[in-house]
């Protein structure tokens, strides 16, 4: 596997910790450690867990007009973003489909810091670069690792090593040091819990990871727990819940479209977005709770009770915190209201389910 897949700077540490390595987005990544996915998931909800997300794409957008340049590709209001703040956004294609979702932070002095999905960075970065005017440049950061330290105890545990981190608000960003290691920290994550994501020079990543894992009660966690945590939190996974065929309106991500951008309508695919906002889309992404304990996986057909198929599951798992299955998928707009009865075709049988509000587990971000 190592001959064909890329590795993150923490690959040796994953193997030392007993990580089960699997292919993911072109990388060898740990799906779980010996304790197992459920234990890692519950440890994140109760305490603190460390995830390696160094496969993600990191880059800086530099130069006067960087925010305006990025707005040529996204309906997010980037220019309103103040120094030391971060937001979630969508890159759109001319048809109004989602090329990727991303995080962007304003580091001050015409510096934007971007994090894009591992599976899409080879698409996103050339797309952004091609849209840049003279004087604005994109600098990929392949020499940096990215660690996610998540859970209600993550920031309190970090406070002794990096007091500046404890002072960060939700979606706040700071360049600081953790135990003497220079880092860029954002108070954000993909689990629904409080926590941080830490960009660190690749050569210092293992030392930082080991220091964080030495803190009381901290466990390593892999892709399996990351997926069940984000699904309980109602967060989209690119390639499953959103892709180049889905629009922000269908995906229930209208909140990412800035107020000013809805007055200007000068972003890619604005015609489709505007039409769907005015007339309603034909389908919508919804949360789904199947009855019983059998999970419904991606591509499971969704039916109206006793009727024809009218959608499909895009993500589904057993939720350890819910102690039951949960899923997301697209259904015809007339069947999208909370509480609507559905049937899922699981292993040839009709499994009763209902539309449910997300998140399935309440977010506990720092407010």
Quick recap:
The chain is of the alpha+beta class. The chain has ten helices and 19 strands. The N and C termini lie far apart (43 Å).
In words, what does this structure look like?
- With 367 residues, this protein is of the alpha+beta class.
- Among the domains are: 10-53 and 143-233, Gyrase A, domain 2 (2-Layer Sandwich), CATH 3.30.1360; 282-362, Aminomethyltransferase beta-barrel domains (Elongation Factor Tu (Ef-tu), domain 3, Beta Barrel), CATH 2.40.30.110.
- It has 10 helices and 19 strands.
- The chain has helices spanning 11-16, 37-46, 66-70, 121-130, 154-159, 163-166, 205-213, 223-232, 259-264, 270-279, and strands at residues 20-24, 27-32, 49-52, 57-62, 85-92, 98-106, 111-116, 137-140, 144-150, 173-178, 181-186, 195-201, 219-220, 283-290, 301-303, 309-319, 324-332, 341-346, 349-356.
- The strands form 4 sheets. It has a 6-stranded mixed β-sheet, with helices on both faces.
- The longest helix has 10 residues, at 37-46.
- The relative contact order is 0.15.
- The mean pLDDT is 97.
Task: List key phrases describing it.
alpha+beta; six-stranded antiparallel β-barrel; 10 helices; 367 residues; Gyrase A, domain 2; six-stranded mixed β-sheet; Elongation Factor Tu (Ef-tu), domain 3
**Strand arrangement in the largest pleated sheet:** 10-11-12-9-3-13
The rounded distance between the terminal residues' Cα atoms is: 43 Å
- Strand fraction equals 25-35%
- CATH architecture identity of the domain at 10-53 and 143-233: 2-Layer Sandwich
Shape: globular
Largest sheet: 6 strands, mixed
Low-confidence stretches: none
Reading off the top of the CATH hierarchy, the class of the domain at 10-53 and 143-233 is best stated as: Alpha Beta
The name CATH uses for the topology of the domain at 10-53 and 143-233 is Gyrase A, domain 2
SSE-based structural type: alpha+beta
The CATH superfamily title of the domain at 10-53 and 143-233: Probable tRNA modification gtpase trme, domain 1
The topology string of helices and strands comes to HEEHEEHEEEHEEHHEEEHEHHHEEEEEE
**Rg (C-alpha, Å):** 20 Å
Q: Overall pLDDT, averaged?
A: 97
| Estimated helix fraction | 10-25%
> Number of helical runs?
10
EC number: 2.1.2.10
GO molecular function: aminomethyltransferase activity; methyltransferase activity; transaminase activity
Binding site for substrate: 197
Domain GCVT N-terminal: 12-259
């Amino acid at each position: 596997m190592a001959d064909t897949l890329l590795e993150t700077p923490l690959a040796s540490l994953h193997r030392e910790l007993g990580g089960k390595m699997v292919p993911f987005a072109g990388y060898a990544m740990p799906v779980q450690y010996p304790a197992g996915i459920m234990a890692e998931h519950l440890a994140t909800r109760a305490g603190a867990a460390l995830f390696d997300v160094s496969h993600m794409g990191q880059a800086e957008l530099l130069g006067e007009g960087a925010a305006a340049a990025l707005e040529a590709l996204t309906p997010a209001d980037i220019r309103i973003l103040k120094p030391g703040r971060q937001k979630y956004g969508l890159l759109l294609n001319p048809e109004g489909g989602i090329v990727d979702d991303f995080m962007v932070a304003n580091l001050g002095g015409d510096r934007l810091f971007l994090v894009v999905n591992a599976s899409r960075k080879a698409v996103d970065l050339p797309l952004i670069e091609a849209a840049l005017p003279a004087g604005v440049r994109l600098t990929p950061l392949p020499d940096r690792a990215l660690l996610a330290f998540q859970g209600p105890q993550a920031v309190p545990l970090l406070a002794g090593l990096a007091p500046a981190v404890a002072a960060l608000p939700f979606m706040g960003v700071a360049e600081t040091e953790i135990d003497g290691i220079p880092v860029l920290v954002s108070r954000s994550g993909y689990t629904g819990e409080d926590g941080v994501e830490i960009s660190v020079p690749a050569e210092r990543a293992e030392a930082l990871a080991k220091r964080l894992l030495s803190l009381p009660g901290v466990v390593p966690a892999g892709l399996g727990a990351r997926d069940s945590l984000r699904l309980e939190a109602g967060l989209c996974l690119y390639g499953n819940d959103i892709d180049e065929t889905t629009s922000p309106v269908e995906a229930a991500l209208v909140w990412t479209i800035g107020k000013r951008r809805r007055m200007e309508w000068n972003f890619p695919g604005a015609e489709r977005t505007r039409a769907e906002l005015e007339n309603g889309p034909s389908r919508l992404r919804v949360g789904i709770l199947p009855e019983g304990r059998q999970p419904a996986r991606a591509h499971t057909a969704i039916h109206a009770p006793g009727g024809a198929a009218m959608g499909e599951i895009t993500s589904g798992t057993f939720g350890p915190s819910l102690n039951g299955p949960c899923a997301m998928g697209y259904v015809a707009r007339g069947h999208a209201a909370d509480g609507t009865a559905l049937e899922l075709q699981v292993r040839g049988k009709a499994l009763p389910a209902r539309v449910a509000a997300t998140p399935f587990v309440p977010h506990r971000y720092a407010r």
